[in-house]
Amino acid sequence: MRKKIVAGNWKMNTTVAEGVELAKAVVAKSAEVPAGVGLIVATPFTHLVSVAEVVKGSRVELSAQNCADKEKGAYTGEVSVNMIKSTGATWTILGHSERRQYYGETDEKLVEKTRLALAAGLKVILCVGENLEEREAGKHFEVVKNQTEAVLFNFTAEDMKNIVVAYEPVWAIGTGKTATADQAEEIHACIRKVLAGKFGEQVAEDTTILYGGSCKPSNAKELFAQPDIDGGLIGGAALKADDFIGIALSF
Fold first, then answer.
1. pLDDT value at position 173?
2. Residue 6, φ and ψ in degrees, nearest 5
3. What angle do CA 75, 80, 84 make, to 5 degrees?
4. Does the active-site annotation cover 168?
5. CA-CA distance, 144 to 208, in Å (whole number)?
């Protein structure tokens, strides 16, 4: 059985003090969530050490939102995988649509970041997804297939045990639009088929694929009822502990 996961991406929100309080609230409410559902909070780099203390010993796991594509050296302002690991974090998000769109992250760069993260012992949430123009041109399957292949086909079936895929319909992030459950499911099924073609049916069946497009307590149940949707990568709703836990209770 593949793992159900709800991961909260805080993006560039909260001060350290606010983040600590939010993490405390998530930990306090986490007991309400069924044991089979994984909970992850992805905080800004500045919060990792402080939030690691809050979640220590709880069921809530800690993630960074990105990492450098170099191991160490003269790269001012960058944060390496070993720095992240040393905070107590066990995950990193890679290839988020905002990183691709605003910071020009390429699939080639994501291969290097993923390789470094796995080597450091971090697990990876790799994001893929199409924008509005690509969706309207009917290229959504092609775009998602190409992004999945371009990064993950550089890794092994063993590596895939530490990689979660998150599908982001970029046109549904921060716009208030949401992909219908059927639209989300058909892309998730497509990703699983791509993985099966490379790694075999068992690896594809075992890989957790999250939905990352304006998931809220009000629509999570319908989304999570789909056979290939294994949870959510949550944005805005992750900034309120009640909403975040409410989504995790939707399985």
1. 75
2. -120, 115
3. 145
4. yes
5. 16
Place of tokens 């092609």: 142
Tracing tokens 């796991």 back to the chain, one arrives at 61
* DSSP per-residue string spanning 15-70: -HHHHHHHHHHHHHHGGGS-TTEEEEEE--GGGHHHHHHHHTTSSEEEEES---SS
Sign of CA dihedral 202, 152, 62, 219: negative
120 with 85: CB under 8 angstroms?
A: yes
pLDDT at 176: 66
Please, which residues bridge with residue 127 across strands? 166
In three-state secondary structure terms, 217 is helix
Contact residues for 173 (Cβ-Cβ < 8 A; gap 6+): 97, 98, 212, 213, 214, 235
- CA-to-CA distance for 85 and 63, rounded, in angstroms? 9
What whole-number distance in Å separates Cα of residue 19 and Cα of residue 145?
Answer: 35
Structure tokens at 214: 């304006």
| Chain position carrying tokens 């170099």 | 70
> Over the stretch 1-29, which tens digit does the pLDDT of each residue have?
899 999 999 999 999 999 999 999 999 99
Which position among 98, 105, 130, 168 bears the catalytic label? 168
User: Which of 47, 61, 96, 188 does the annotation list as catalytic?
Assistant: 96
**Regions in the chain scoring below 50 on pLDDT:** none
